[in-house]
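Colleagues,

For the teaching module next term, I've prepared a clean inverse folding example: a structure given as tokens, and then the sequence designed for it. I'd like students to try predicting residues themselves before seeing the answer, so please don't circulate the second half yet.
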């Protein structure tokens, strides 16, 4: 099916209201799920919506709760997500980080007891649109093996770095695995191979078959041992700063309930003005994109550029969604 932005958003909002979210929270969540879909990240948009509803039904996500502050020290705050909807919690913590950065130049908010935040790049773009830098990450259930191991004892712990730019924000949104599980599920559902080897099968062979990687739970860490080590570091810091769960604790809970997250917001205009910063970023991006390509079919993109292009195109033309997924959402 081909849908326009408002058509899909209205569908999401209708379903969310039936699950007792307030009109305002339903509007925000519907916007996030629709934006993710139209950005070309269906794995954290329409494809993930049934999972989100399932988390409400099994009690992992609590509808009638809000995050609460537990500690504060200048520009650093701790919050408890109280198991509310992950995207709502993450957006509120991002906005709180922005408020702190306006006051102190930098703000750090650590959150415990939240839920899956869907596509964190959304919060990166949201922050950059307001003129601030965002560095944020979450820990996850064990779904990534330490380098040289057979079983997952770490998380693929998504990391976002977002930088404001008038010509298009630079938004790095990446997991610690070469391909996120959401991306691999998309490829599996479309019966496609990954463009590059993304992990190991049960026999320990490197493979581009997403189904075999999902079955073995042995995705390839970015940078091999470097990505595995970075995953561990992010997990430790998130648990330390938030006072919440580490990946080892999430392994004991059903689903991905109660991850720890960190949101660091920085005002880039403290020592230089916005125009100077934009000129500098444009020079760096232009130099980056001036590299000689391997062949004429190759394009060089800065982080976030393809997502921006996808959204513009899809909003203008509408987006095709999988019929089975669409019917599944309608039937919720």
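(Answer key — instructors only)
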């Amino acid at each position: 099916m081909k849908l326009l932005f408002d058509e899909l958003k209205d569908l999401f909002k209708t379903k969310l209201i039936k699950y007792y979210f307030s009109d305002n929270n339903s509007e925000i969540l519907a916007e996030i799920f629709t934006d993710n879909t139209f950005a070309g990240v269906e794995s954290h948009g329409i494809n993930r919506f049934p999972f989100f509803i399932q988390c409400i039904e099994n009690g992992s996500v609590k509808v009638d709760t809000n995050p609460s502050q537990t500690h504060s020290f200048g520009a650093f705050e701790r919050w408890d997500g109280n198991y509310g909807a992950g995207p709502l919690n993450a957006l509120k913590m991002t906005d709180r980080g922005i408020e702190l950065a306006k006051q102190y130049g930098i703000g750090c908010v650590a959150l415990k007891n939240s839920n899956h935040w869907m596509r964190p790049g959304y919060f990166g773009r949201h922050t950059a649109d307001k003129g601030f830098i965002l560095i944020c990450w979450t820990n996850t259930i064990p779904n990534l093996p330490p380098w040289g191991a057979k079983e997952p004892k770490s998380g693929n712990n998504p990391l976002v770095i977002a930088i404001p730019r008038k010509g298009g924000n630079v938004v790095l949104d990446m997991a610690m695995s070469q391909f996120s599980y959401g991306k691999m599920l998309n490829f599996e559902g479309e019966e496609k191979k990954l463009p590059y080897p993304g992990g190991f099968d049960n026999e320990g062979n490197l493979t581009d078959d997403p189904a075999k990687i999902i079955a073995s739970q042995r995705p390839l860490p970015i940078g091999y041992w470097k990505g595995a080590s970075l995953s561990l570091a992010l997990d430790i810091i998130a648990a330390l700063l938030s006072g919440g769960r580490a990946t080892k604790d999430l392994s004991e809970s059903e689903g991905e309930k109660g991850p720890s997250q960190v949101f660091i917001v920085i005002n880039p205009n403290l020592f230089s003005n916005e125009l100077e910063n934009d000129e500098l970023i444009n020079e760096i991006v232009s130099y980056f994109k001036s590299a000689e390509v391997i062949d004429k079919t190759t394009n060089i993109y800065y982080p976030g550029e393809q997502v921006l292009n996808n959204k513009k195109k899809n909003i203008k033309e509408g987006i095709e969604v999988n019929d089975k997924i669409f019917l599944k959402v309608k039937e919720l």
